[in-house]
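Researcher: I'm comparing several assemblies side by side, and this is the next one on my list. It has 1157 residues spread over two chains. Same procedure as the others: predict the full complex and return the structure.
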Amino acid sequence: MSLLPLSRGTRGTRAIPDSARLGPQPGEVIDRGRSVPFTWNGAAHSAHPGDTIASALAAAGVRVFSRSYKYHRPRGLLTADYLDPGAFLQVGDEPNVRGAHRLVEPGMEVSSQNTWPSLRFDVKAVNQLAGRFLATGFYYKTFIKPEPLWPLYEKVLRRFVHAGTITPEVGAAYYDHRYAHPDVVVAGGGPAGMAAALAAARGGASVMLVEENHHLGGHLRYGDTADLAALAELRAQVAGQPGIEVLTDSVVTGRFDDNWIPVVQRGLPGVTERLIKARAKTLIVAPGLIERPYVFAGNDLPGVMLSTAVRRLINLYAVKPGQRAVVLTANPDGDAAVADLARAGVEIAAVLDPRRGDGVRAAHGHGGLRAVETGTGQRIEADLLVTATGWTAPTSLLNQSGDRPIYDPAAARFLPDPRRMPDNVLAAGGIVGDGTTAQLVEHAEAVGREAARRATSGPTPVSVPELKPAAHPELFSAGTGGFVDFCEDVSAKDITTAVAEGYDSVELVKRYTTVTMGPTQGKLETVNAVALVAAATGKSIAETGTTTWRPVYSPVTLGALAGRPHEPVRHSPMQPWHQRHGATPLVAGQWIRPEHYGDPAAEVRAVRGGVGIIDVTPIGKLDLQGPDVPQLLNLLYVNKWSKLPIGRVRYGVMCAEDGVVLDDGVTGRLGEHHYLMSTTSSGAATVWEWVENWLQTAHPDWRVHVTPVTTAYASINIAGPRSRDLLSRLTDVDLSSDGFGYMNVRRGTVAGVAECVLWRIGFTGELSYEIHVPASYGLHVWEQLMASGADLGVAPFGVEAQRILRLEKGHVIVGQDTDGLTQGFTAGLDGLIKLDKTDFVGLPELRWQHQRDEHPHLVGLRPLDGSVVPPEASQILDRSGGIAGRVTSSRMSPTLGRAIGLAQIDRDLAAVGTHVTVRLPDGRDITAEITDAVHVDPEGERQRV
Amino acid sequence: MSDRTPPLARGPVAVDPGVVRDGWEVDARVATGPLTLSDESPLAKVHVRAPFDGASPAALGVGFGRAARADLGTGDVLVVGSGPGEWLVLGAPNTAGALRAAIEERLAGTGEFTTVLDLTHGRALLRLTGRDAATVLAAVCAIDLSDTVTPDGTALRSSLAAVVTDLVRDDQDQTASYLLHVERSSGQYLADALLDAGAPSRLEITGFRGLS
């Protein structure tokens, strides 16, 4: 026999004279007619379609795929499937790829992770020499002191993190989300899962059948002729059965309350992963069994594999797993592996059967298996040691459903406890018990029928035949050391050490040693860890119990969880015009608004000197109807509303119960019981909710209907001394100062569009009209205004110009000039707040604020050097250097040619004419003068014409 | 006052190319596949508020959570019980005024406090039709859209792609069809989200179809 040298795992691969690829196998899944090129650590390789990365490399003779987490020991294939802890690889810019599961794709660049300078010679393997000092708890004990050095420790330790690399670049593929509501979800597509899905579908249920492998079939896929025949029959039935959605390469990652079941699906074109949020009426857990590794010295050497691993390699991928094998078999599956190996041409050096008292003490080799030491001390040369020492029932989904597994010493595995399972969760197949394929199918069919019955509220429960677990010797550890957790490099000694240090509960041992906390999440390790803890504590395995299996069942990418977030945006009807005319977009909440059309200062001058129009559609608008609207307005606004005549508009401010300013706007009375309320753009939803809350909770007796109509109208503000000239060309409404005075509302036709609402109000401080047009005609009216006003020099202006204009006029923006602590009197609403009203929201707090008279004030502010515009939020200092306030709004005024602002400031500095110090963000101090808040046209002559 | 150009109404979803029908600019495209999305915003949309437990539900003929065809005096309309004490009535384009008046007259007899409001221009109305329509919606909506849970004639309010949406199952020629009713300003966004979700199913834009 010639043992394969370790070095042939990396760049020497192509030098291997004899490929490990076998001739055609009955159940193989590869397409021998085609080849797929890929690279492994920079070297060119070839696979067949259907090959996993690991099977392709194994076919080329590669035996070492990775280095271990802590000691950087060479690791090979152990399970040759989804769980294989030795085959977590880097593929392109994707780290932690399951190499024994991921199919090879053309051009894949595959490499080992966290190995330097190479997989073959990894410097960090020096950790093995220091292994005695890296025992469990090493990090906790070593790096706790001196505490100031922790940042340095962290920096160094990060270099040892066992993970791959990612790229910040976003690829073309994306992560997707989808919702699903099947009657029945079947977790596991082996014979039991397929049979259960078929029976459920035939029972009238819609079924989602989820399988983590790329094909349905479970263990039948790598079985004998009879298994393959049964598999073909089951697959054909599933394919022909309506009502079954089959998801392969997909994993049920958890079970939450009321059968909320997340499923991660891969293999979709253009989609990296899809997270399906399924809500199932019934869940069938049918994951089969997971073969359990055996714990002995050297059990992590490349060349030590589970019996299911060699059967997969031989039967699915036609790969010869070694040249000379020792097989430790305690069950029929191990016996079948012996037959497969012999058929594949592997020399069987020895078959050791614990059922006859045989055993294995240790595996020997340096970088790869070279010899096996039997229980009697015999040394057998071999490059392959196959173990078949027992099974683990992956009860995660059942545990997440409330079940607690019970240990059965006769079967040497934990089993579900049917008494603790909720009605909407069932289990089928190997997780319940053992049997022939026919027995598994019979049991699963009954479970499937019962699942359908429960999902569809059928009348008569289905009788489910018993499926007893087969007897199996208890084989966990040879007592010679070895690794329990291959992902975390946790050894048997680590477990016993932890117990000796007082961590005598399996949950504590888990947290102290990190056993079962790696990517395989305990599926390979838990039972062995429990057995070792039990042995160390002198308790039975049943008394020791298991750790808790929590979601997720297997690691989930952050991308799958995030998906593609939905980020709604809102557009006004005039948005196409804004885009065509080069508007710079401003994201204001969900709204996309024109910030300016190139020169905000010019837009200000156009309004002051002629006429401008601005799209103010986002202004919140509520239609109020009913005889009790005045009471509602009186309750919510700080000023009085009982005597608002039809055709008039009034400005109002809402405060919360604590007197803090909530929102402002105008409300116009359109008819006897009909009002239109406006709110700030950002406050539209809040105010609607606020109004409805008061109506529904405090005054359900009031006859008021509130309907949000923000986007029912396209809203346009026409501002400037020529605004009347412009609008009069397009409307039938009398716009004369006598016929339509300041703070009035009219309804009429604009540009041929009926049912428009016109307000004469003035946020900009100019003569202006705010027209609200049925939204579908918004673009038409806007275009008509621009066309009709060409000779007047009409110009569009954006949000920035509007901010400047209103600042010049000293108008407050709620949320900018106020904050979450700004009460009404601080906002300068002294004349508006009517403390003599019987009641309104915030009245008690505002009365108290008024009585205390110690609140900050909102004032105008002008830097003495008018060329300096202090950034908003700049602090204002008192005479001792303390903070006395802040700049809330600040701009260069095109009208005045100097900087102006608004500020909140302590009352003793608020007098007009006071000089204050403003500290700029760069640390410089400037002097500014307190002024009246109104910088332009304080008498209001421009807007009352 | 000078009216130089006749008013042209436009829906919230961009058209490419457009054609004018009954004063509305609508999409001229005609889909050839079995899965379509159309902008039905030109339909008259009248919003009704009335006591949910009074006489008005009987006067309108539909309760909360259901939708049904009816003739309230202006021809064939779809009455949707869109919320508790809240209805949406859809009618042919440019009939909102008459429809509103007919509903007000009908409800006046109940003596109840009611409000009837024309929201034609304030809402976007999309129609998603095809056997795979529910599959498309499953990408943006958490509701179970199976026939047993949401059969033809179901009305509900939920989140579609993070936008509050009234969803009405209104099958056409025994093919699943959903009317999706949102704030007008969200119409383009929702259409884009649906087209994205429906791309794998070959969702196509088609022109205005109307109520029948």
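Model: For your comparison table: Chain A is about 20% helix and 25% strand.
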